[in-house]
Amino acid sequence: MERFNMSMRKYLKEVGVTSQQAIERVVREQNLAGKDKLQVRMVLTAKGADLNHVVEGEIDLSDATAD
To answer: Which of 2, 22, 27, 67 registers the highest number of CB atoms within 10 A of its CB?
Structure first.
């Protein structure tokens, strides 16, 4: 069970870090800083398993910077 937990945490950390980088990049490249909100949707699927998990939300861009 320990390997499972460590493997899952490693994957989720990678998802979080790379997702944040992708969002920051799109905000910068599309000049969205200071705009209202960014509607986001994350879909998690797994090959060979019946997994389809969707998380929707919004990110407030009102005080984002264009750096």
So the answer is: 27
Place of tokens 């209202």: 36
Neighbours of 27 (CB within 10 A): 20
For residues 48 and 12, give the distance between their C-alpha atoms in angstroms, rounded to a whole number.
19
What is the DSSP code string of 19-40? HHHHHHHHHHHTT-TTSSEEEE
**What are the structure tokens assigned to 10, written together?**
């490693």
Whether residue 19 contacts residue 42, with contact meaning beta carbons closer than 8 Å, is answered with yes
Q: Is 35 in contact with 27 (CB distance < 8 Å)?
A: no
Name the residue ranges covered by the structural domains of the chain: 2-60
